[in-house]
Every structure is written in structure tokens, then in C-alpha cells.
Amino acid sequence: MFKxxxxxxxxxxxxxxxxxxxxxxxxxxxxxIGIISFFYKPTYSVxxxxxxxxxxxxxxxxxxxxxDYMKGIETENxxxxxxxxxxxxxxxxxxxxxxxxxxxxxxxxKGIGTTYYNYYAIxxxxxxxxxVSTKEDAEAIIDKLKEKDSNNIKDIAYTEIYNTEQQTFxxxxxxxxxxxxxxxxxxxxxxxxxxxxxxxxDLGIDLIKPIASGYTITSRFGQRSSGNHGGLDIxxxxxxxxxxxxxxxxxxxxxxxxxxxxxxxISHANGVQTLYGHCSALYVSVGQYVEQGEVIGAVGTTxxxxxxxxxxxxxxxxARLNPQYYLY
Length: 328
Ligand SMILES: [Zn+2]
Hints:
The structure is a single chain. Helices cover about 25% and strands about 30% of the residues. The protein has helices spanning about 1-40, 60-70, 100-110, 135-145, 170-180; strands spanning about 40-50, 50-55, 80, 90-95, 115-125, 125-130, 155-165, 215-220, 230-235, 240-245, 250-255, 260-265, 270-280, 280, 290, 295-300, 310-315, 320. Strands 8, 9, 11, 12, 13, 15, 17 and 18 form an 8-stranded antiparallel sheet that branches. α2 runs parallel beside α3 and α4 (about 135-145) packs across α5. The mean pLDDT is about 90. The chain binds zinc ion.
């Protein structure tokens, strides 16, 4: 019995001495950690391009904000922001009063970013006229100009842009109103017979043959027993392409009430016009600009005509001239 009590006592003595040792190690450690923690705090030191830019407690928050910033989430029309070098983080202990300048760190990181914007340019004849913010805006502008039958609709387009330059955006209606072009009023001649210009005049422009040589000339200018003939008739199979004799603007393209049938009139420089009569098809519309040689219609026998042929007229300030002064 006594032996047992003695050994229990021994255990207690042993525990007490162990406790002493533990307390001698643990307590100072806790105190030291406490002192260190009171003055110092684990934090991240942030460097950018090797240069120290500050301390942060919340590395994740900074990384998320930098990622959002690079995705352009904060501002409309930013495609992305390129930051060539990302910041580096390293764990360290700093004095408590030094900690956390996350805002300054973010400002410094953003300061080295290159912003790429994304928006749309409205083009007229491939030349940028306006910028709009969204694809929907760009498409709505084209649709509205189509609806209004704007004369220049073929020349209007849009293109998507990515670059570092921000632009001022125009409103849809502002662009539509500025770009809209009224179709010119068609010029119709109310006489099939002609007033003759007696002599060749210098047109000041070069003409090319609207249809190839080799076809029969079936009626010459001014040489008819049954009334005057204001143009030159060239027989050709139906559908033969008719080319514009010179560049110019189409001033008539449609049905004539005075015998030309489906006809086209093009206004060139110097008051010169060319007329193409009896067409089977018309490929151009009033107001359209055509290049020399562009196919504008096809040979036919519409209107006052007894067979497939091109009736070609050349007019200067309203007076008709013999086409054979210049062609065929
Ligand atoms: Zn004729």
C-alpha cells in the first residue's frame, strides 16, 4: 500500500518537473510571439518591375481587382487592358503602422496598363465618318438608312475597331441624319425626236463603245425618211451587256413614255449625257455613280423598237450629237 502511494507521489513529482520545463519554454515563446505580433504583422511585399510598390494584407483582393481591371469590367467599350509585367508578391513581416497600402498599389499597377478599346466605325466610301459604341448601333444606322432609301446606301458600311484610342460616340439619329442622301429626281425626256447639233463639238471627255464593234448598225443618226432619229441603232442579241461610255451619275433608269422603253441616261462631265434605249435589263439606279466600262444594262427590244438593238444617244446640254462623230 505504502509502495503504491510512494510511486503515485513520484509520478506527481515527475509531472510537476515536466510542467515546469514546459512552462519555461512555452510561456516565453508565447510572450515573444505576442510581442512580435504586437509590433509586427505577416503581410505581402509587392514589387512591380523589380521596384517595391507597397504592402498588402489581402493579396487575393489585389489580384482579383487587377484581373477585373484587365478585363475592362469597370468601363464600357474597353476590350481589355494589357499589363506587360504583373506584380510579384512575397511574404514578410512589417511593423504594424506600415501595413496595407492596397489602394496605392492598385493605382501603380493600373498606371502601367495599356487600354484597348472596342467600338465601331461608320464608313462612307471606306472613310470613317462616325464612331458608335455598339454593334447594335452600327446595324441600326445601316437599317435606318436602307429604310429611308438613302441614295448612298451602297457606300455605307461599318467595321469593328480595337485600338488604344478612345473616341467620342455619335447617337444613331445624328449619324443617320448626317449621312442620309436624297435620291435625285429622275430626268425624263419628253421627246423621242431630236434637236440636232450640226457640227461635231469637243466633248472634253473620252467615250468608249457601250457594246463591242462587229454588230450591224441598223439606223444612223438623223437619216430617216419617217422623221428624225436622235441616236445610233446597233443591232445585238438580247442580253448583250451594255457598258457605260464614260464615268458619271445615272440620272434616269426606268421606263420611258416616249418610246425608249427601258432606258438609262448617264450624266458625265462637261454637260455631256449618254442615253441607252430599248434595254431588256437595267442594272443601275438613279443617283448611282458608275465607272467607265461598267455594265449598266442589257440589249433588248423594249419600247418603240422592232428588234433587239441598242439605241445610243450622245447629248451635250440637251442637244443631240451624232454618236458616229465619236464612236463606231
Ligand atoms: Zn434608235
